[in-house]
């Protein structure tokens, strides 16, 4: 293997700041971005745009070189679902680490209709399978760090284990750790559950080294490397299809639009700042699991809020911000009016070892950064009827 790191999905919200962090932290490594720019296309054709304009990938890489003097980043425009694409990439680069972030990660997008559901499954499941087969042949010793989803886990009132646990049924304990139960109510999360199954299979039977990140909802606009450097800003989507819940709440509160809580607001979501997510992911380089090990990391630094509770937190936290923040419970696009309050504690052994900022401080900094661009926020992006279907 060579000193090369692949970042699949390196043009995305999380992928781009991760590329910057890796390039600066490991200057001796070649960082190779693999991206089809599909996120850009599907947001644009759905009638939306990120808060700040985002330079095309060649311009981003040039800006990174101009600002930080970084020369160790390459990029390749390509689709992981193309038949011979990934085998060619892995044969050419022989990476020691692969970050797989190239997923269709919007739940609303996956539920628009059959066509969007099928695309989500093909991209997330088939694309992941093609990567595993390519690794098996051309990079069997590489460390795969793949984004799973915290939303895969079934909620049943017991602690959410970090991937595996030893269950007890009718007084008899299992004699080996078993995967924590999964359950999903939308196409996107079902696709992630299937992907997790393939990762477990590939580690057990092919000996691949895999770390799966059960990523909670990410929020935020900046990492340390991008503050005050517009040419390096990551994309920040805040619309009702592609924007994550806290990103949407913050932009709504700044623009004077009611916070749109879907259903009864009792849904629970783990939260983690963009900065913390990037720091944690970058720290995994050089920490490869053993041959045949499927390591799971619960990527959530805040898990105590329901969606309705998060909206109330925003109301209370910014009561002194001279804005009137209202909450709107009238939208229920996913039929969640009777959703139970499924509170569970979360095991986060890996993140417990890392520095952690107070959630309220992170949110206040985030609000301040977005507030500087408040004039750019388009309220029509918030209404669930405002998007058109993306033609795949």
Topology at a glance:
Elements (H helix, E strand, L loop, with lengths): L3 E5 L6 H11 L4 E6 L2 H8 L11 H12 L4 E5 L7 H9 L3 E4 L6 H4 L3 H25 L4 E7 L14 E2 L2 E2 L2 E2 L4 E2 L7 H20 L2 E7 L1 E3 L25 H11 L3 E2 L10 E3 H9 L11 E6 L7 H11 L9 E2 L30 H13 L21
Parallel strand pairs: 1-2, 1-4, 2-3, 4-5, 5-10, 10-14, 11-13, 12-15
Antiparallel strand pairs: 6-9, 7-8
Short description, anyone?
The protein is 34% helix and 15% strand. The protein has helices spanning 15-25, 38-45, 57-68, 85-93, 107-110, 114-138, 187-206, 245-255, 274-282, 307-317, 359-371; strands at residues 4-8, 30-35, 73-77, 97-100, 143-149, 164-165, 168-169, 172-173, 178-179, 209-215, 217-219, 259-260, 271-273, 294-299, 327-328. Helix 4 (85-93) runs parallel beside helix 6 (114-138) and helix 8 packs parallel to helix 10 (307-317).
């Amino acid at each position: 293997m060579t000193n090369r790191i692949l970042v699949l999905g390196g043009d995305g919200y999380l992928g781009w700041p991760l590329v910057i962090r890796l390039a600066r932290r490991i200057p001796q490594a070649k960082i190779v971005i693999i991206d089809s720019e599909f996120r850009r296309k599907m947001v644009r054709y759905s009638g939306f745009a990120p808060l700040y304009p985002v330079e095309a990938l060649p311009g981003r890489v040039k800006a990174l070189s101009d600002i930080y003097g970084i020369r160790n980043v390459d990029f390749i425009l390509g689709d992981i679902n193309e038949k011979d694409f990934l085998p060619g990439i892995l044969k050419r680069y022989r990476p020691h680490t692969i970050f797989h972030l190239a997923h269709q990660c919007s739940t609303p997008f996956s539920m628009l209709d059959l066509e969007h559901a099928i695309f989500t499954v093909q991209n997330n499941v088939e694309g992941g399978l093609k990567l595993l087969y390519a690794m098996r042949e051309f990079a069997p010793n590489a460390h795969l760090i793949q984004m799973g989803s915290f939303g895969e886990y079934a909620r049943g009132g017991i602690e959410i284990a970090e991937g595996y646990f030893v269950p007890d049924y009718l007084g008899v304990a299992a004699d080996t750790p078993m995967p924590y139960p999964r359950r999903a109510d939308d196409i996107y999360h079902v696709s992630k559950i299937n992907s997790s199954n393939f990762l477990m299979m590939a580690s057990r039977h092919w000996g691949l080294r895999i770390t799966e990140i059960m990523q909670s909802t990410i929020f935020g606009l900046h990492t340390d490397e991008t503050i005050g450097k517009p040419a390096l800003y990551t994309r920040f989507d805040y619309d009702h299809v592609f924007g994550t819940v806290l990103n949407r709440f913050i932009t709504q509160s700044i623009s004077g639009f009611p916070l749109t809580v879907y259903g009864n607001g009792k849904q629970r979501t783990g939260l983690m700042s963009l900065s913390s997510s990037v720091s944690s992911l970058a720290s995994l380089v050089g920490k490869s699991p053993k041959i045949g090990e499927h390591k799971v990391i619960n990527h959530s630094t805040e898990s105590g809020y329901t969606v309705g509770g998060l909206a109330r937190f925003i109301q209370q936290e910014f009561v002194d911000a001279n804005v009137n923040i209202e909450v709107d419970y009238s939208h229920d696009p996913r039929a969640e009016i009777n959703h139970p309050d499924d509170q569970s504690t979360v095991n986060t052994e890996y993140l417990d070892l890392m520095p952690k900022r107070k959630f309220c401080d992170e949110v206040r900094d985030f609000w301040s950064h977005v507030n500087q661009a408040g004039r750019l926020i388009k309220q029509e992006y918030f209404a669930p009827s405002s998007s058109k279907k993306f033609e795949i």
